[in-house]
Amino acid sequence: MKVSDKLKQAEDSKQPYFSFEYFPPKTEQGLANLYDRIERMARLGPVFVAVTWGAGGATAQRTLELCSACQGVFGVETVMHLTCTNMDIAQVDAALEGAKAAGIQNILALRGDPPRDAEYWTACEGGFSHAVDLVRYIREKYGSYFCVGVAGYPEGHIESTDADQDFEYFVAKVEAGADFVVSQLAYDANVFIQWEKKVRARGITVPVVAGVLPVQSYQSFRRLVFLTKVAVPEALRERLEEAKANDQAVKDLGVEHAVAMVRQLQAAGVRGVHLTTLNLENSVQRVLEALGMGEAAMKSTGRALAGQAVTGQAMTSTAERRVWDDFPNGRWGDARSPAFGSADAYGAMLKFDAQGAARVWGRPCTLDDISSLFARYVTGEIASLPWSDEPLRAETERIGAELARVNRLGFWTLASQPALDGVASADATHGWGPRGGYVYQKAFVECFVAGAKFGSFLSRLQSSASRVTYYAANRQGDFLTNAHAGEGTALTWGVFPGRAVVQPTLIDKISFLAWRAEAFQTWREWAAMFAQASQEACFLRETADECWLVNVVDNDYKQADAIWELFQ
Hints:
Blueprint: H1 3-12, E1 17-22, H2 28-42, E2 49-51, H3 60-73, E3 78-83, H4 89-101, E4 106-110, H5 131-142, E5 147-152, H6 163-175, E6 180-185, H7 189-201, E7 208-212, H8 218-228, H9 234-243, H10 247-267, E8 272-276, H11 282-291, H12 294-297, H13 301-304, H14 318-323, H15 354-361, H16 367-378, H17 400-408, E9 411-417, E10 420-424, E11 438-441, E12 443-449, H18 451-463, E13 468-474, E14 479-481, E15 489-495, E16 502-507, H19 509-527, H20 535-546, E17 548-554
Parallel strand pairs: 1-2, 1-8, 2-3, 3-4, 4-5, 5-6, 6-7, 7-8
Antiparallel strand pairs: 9-12, 10-11, 11-15, 12-17, 13-14, 13-17, 15-16
Helix pairs in contact: 5-6, 7-10, 9-10, 10-11, 16-17, 19-20
């Protein structure tokens, strides 16, 4: 059934309605457990679910697989995102024919983020320049078979410098044959309400569904705002700043704000909301419960927990899986979690253009240039790296001097944390989770190591194998570790009143290798910001080919500074 028909039915009922959005997980285990989660969430009664599409078709197979399961196994009308970045007509047709074969009639036509390896966004030969081109093509080639949706931007597209022109681009997309609109997320209901009035005043009558993303963690919220420049009400910003050390309080505030925002939208006559889940479950379900939506919010959370996995083998008990929703899922979260990788699930890694990158990161031509750049970052002289789009977190201050030292020595750090031994969960810098608990951390450092230094560094790691766990890989795919096969290494854990021990942060082979591909790809993206034959581009490509990515965990968290002896 076409989503436009379902939306019309929902609007005609005069009742509030909602939809969900998911992204394809990075790991097979995450995908298997997302199926389990979607089965539970489908019982809440979404009008449709949507699945994102990676730039240039990077997630094409997994996106189609996930869409097919939602449509065919779980019986939920499914919208497949389709971006036209770096996609020629043959690729677009392959995606659309795959959707038809899976019984999917609904497409959200997007331009998407700039493709990786590109200096600027350009249409590939035989491809499309804008979402409107994709809408027109679908209509010309497939007629009315597909129900086509487009994105709306209440605050204007992030790349737009002319709000009026940006709105005209949106109108052109709708007039090209769109059947419905899903808006970019907003944290201020008034922004959407005023924009929708402008849309209706222009004579646009297709359904418009408001995008809503409950705040899941302080760090993910801060990164989202940094990348999208979305407006945030000052009251929300201040309350999140006050609560940032208490993860549960941040989640509670995220639910509270989302509920208030949806109520404000409903009071203004906006019935439909599109909830971006980040593949998480608890906050979205709590929002619906508070609003009295979702099959009367399932009446009881317990009923929503009763489902069994239908695809793949469940990795853990349902109760354990829901712990993944309780605390932030960063890069080193549990690779079995459907939310693993959510930090970079939306959007390309690099957000600078070539001029901006050269201004901030310079024009590196030697290893010393790279060492100096990383040292400037960890000392706060610059606010970003190609691998990190935000300044360092406050917790790294206690190891700041060592980070500066090892970076100058040529160990280019991407992530690190100090050892902690029973710090109060309420601690403003290091605390997380519910109040009244204690948190623990093993010291770890993740870094690039130039090929000439790697051999001696590996020898030191191997000589400390009784205390240290390491993972190392290069761009060519060589992999070394002393970790036991199939086992992960806990990096962070917490003990809280009335709860089992919580381990929200761990590393294993699957999670490390998933990140390895991203980390080495970023070297190529950085190189692509210079002329192909330039000294800088050649140097960056050669460095990527020769260096190793290494993650070192010191399992003796009682010896807080011992890890630094390895970096000589």
